[in-house]
Task: structure prediction
Amino acid sequence: MTTPMLDITKDVCPMTFVKVKMGLQKVAPSGKLNVRLKEEALKNVISSLKGEGHRVTNVSREDAVYILEVERGGS
Amino acid sequence: MKEADYKELKKGGMMRQAEAGLFSVRLHVVGGRLGTRQLEAIREAADRFGRGEVHLTSRQGVEIPNVPQGSLAELKEFLAPSGVGVGVCGPTVRTVTACQGCRVCPSGAIDSPALAAAVDREFYGKPVPHKFKVGISGCVNNCIKAEENDAGIKGWIEPRWSGEDCTECGICEAVCPTKAISRPGKGMQPVIDRELCIGCGDCIVACPAGTLREEVRGFRLFAGGKFGRVPFLGKRILGVLKTEAETVAAVAAVLEFFRLHGKPRERFGDTLKRTGFEALEAHVLGKEARP
Result:
């Protein structure tokens, strides 16, 4: 099964955070979600992911866009 | 009244107004914090001795304007039991300003009100060649504008690359607001330029793998800042100070340097332009080295 992709490149805080949270709710624990985001969203999105017990397991880049592979933590 | 007497009153926080016979009375406030009991006493005093109003100063102070000269002593006595002291003016260490700090503000890195209280306890109202202002920001967002003060302090988080689990994703480099982090090449440790680093800790917060960690969470000192007619931004001195006690000791050494080298009516920044910031740093470090 391919990992679902969530694009938040057109969103600003706090919608970036809200959409990632909602996206992860559709994923089973230990399941993965890819998130496309812009540089300015990196700090807040990653810090909130870490704060909620999720893990960023891979980071890649397509020009100005970053793609985070997020593993859902907890239950 | 003699000019010398006005000067004495001014030193004690009683400032002569434009209108003869009236004074604006400055109160002792630390880090902009007042209890409700103090506020009630101030309200009552402003009604009794002034014209029912207070002025909030530009540096978190409170003044009661329009107090007749004959009521000054009585006003002071009235406020004392509520723990409200009168302020200072003239060539002294002035009101210590502070933000709410880490106990209230989610961004706070240090307990700025606690440090303000310690600095106030040690130095408030002490004589110096010219007015000397201390301002404390709990983090580098710098709400208190540390660099505008003769001695400014900021909460500071210094990062350290631990090497553990680093995936070389480059996010630390991307999020750093001053481009202080660079990666020389694949498999190599990122370089953190300590001169460019502003101690915000964003790289630590954003690091997905937790590779970047806090080396120090402490206090950064800025010296020689002022506003007024010719503004000048204070410059960063020393390394990151680790404890409140170390910071108070550094401020003590800075004040001692000002007393040794400052001329009457010369702001600290102007003294430093003559002596150089290196001389100040050497003096402060010399103090630290002593047992």
User: Anything to note?
Assistant: Chain A touches chain B through 13 residues (CB under 8 Å). Residues 39-51 of chain A form the longest helix (13 residues).
